[in-house]
Amino acid sequence: MDKQTIFYHLLGNTLFAAVINMFIWFSIAFWVFLETESVLATSYVAGIFAVANMLSAFVFGNIVDHNRKKKVMIYSSVVSLVFYIIGAAIFFTSPPEVFNNANSITLWGLIIVLMFGSVAGNLRLIALSTTVTMLFSEGKDKANCLVGAMNGVSFSLTSVLSGLVIGFFGMGSAIVIAIIVTILVLAHLPFVPLIEKEVVHMEGAGNKFNIKKTIAIIVTIPGLMMLIFFTTLNNFLGGVFMALMDAYGLSLVSVQTWGVMFSLASLGFIVGSVVITKVGLGKNPLRALLIVNMIVWIVAALFTIQPSVWLLFVGLVIWMAVSPFAEAAEQTIIQSVVPFEKQGRVFGFAQSVESAATPITAFLIGPIATFIFIPFMTTGAGVDSIGDWFGVGQERGIALVFVVTGLIGIGVTLLAFKTNAYRILSKHMESVKI
After folding, report:
1. Is residue 196 one of the residues assigned to a domain?
2. Residue (of 145, 147, 127, 157) closest to 19 by Cα position
């Protein structure tokens, strides 16, 4: 096989793995809300997932740098499979009524086990990002857009599959499906002929993750820390949507409809990715990243302004269509300015730091929505002040959280355009080959 064909095989294999790992995550989010009818439980599920992503990314980046990439992908799927099997044992040996109680230890044990299986999939995603550098000397931005297209397809398939499976068959079927697909993914990987050079280690690094040396790599590249900090702020705000989007969508439509609706909206990922393959990201991926973020937050401030399913759907389509630009931009910047043998650690550090903000928001936003925004739009001053045009009720309280978050995001992005770090990294990017 040539390098491009090998990349397609890795991309396809990762697609199936990503679909099933996100399928489990979506299924948990849908199932927990339907079983417990608790906004707090939903936000805590999002928070636990984000914490697991944050803590694992440090370790995952180091594993990627110190092992062959295909072996890392195999490790990832083996770990996921083990956790899914444990989850199946918990689910099928427990009485159904324990899952209706948001305070059930068995419920949260199952959630954590399945989430660990899902999070283990991030290991192969970091490895895939480094294989782009390994296989392509030029055109990394377009290769990254294929990764974005993969994420779009996986989102599209995941949301509809999880909605339909949970709606018609239940969580038990979702777990069984995850086990079967993960086994198939593992069976395919050994036949992908990815020829890798001897693993190169950073001088004096050993196999132990050293955060100081990783930070030292980042600070030597002008503006790179600012990029990570900016994305961290975005994730801090994005935690709002991670915690409350399902609760808001399910307050408007059935779980089956929400799954199909989210699936159709996720096709925007593919559209955005196709555009990148045609035009690329230009000479300054950082500028493209900030422009995309401005669009995202404008949409976030508007798509729940009225209790309309169509407004929500159009907003989701636009939001997802521009998301591949942001993902491809950040990956292309890191791949272009960080040496290959150090990229795993930088990707892992960036993912971990960026993810650190999300659980804070996810854990806080549930109580904030429950005790401040929802009462404000049900029995509080919001009913009289804006209720006549904005609407009233629990879902409008959640909608108001989205509007406020979008406005804050717009302000943060405008400030980022004015920083010295933005100008420095922009000039640096224009001098390197992407």
Report:
1. no
2. 157
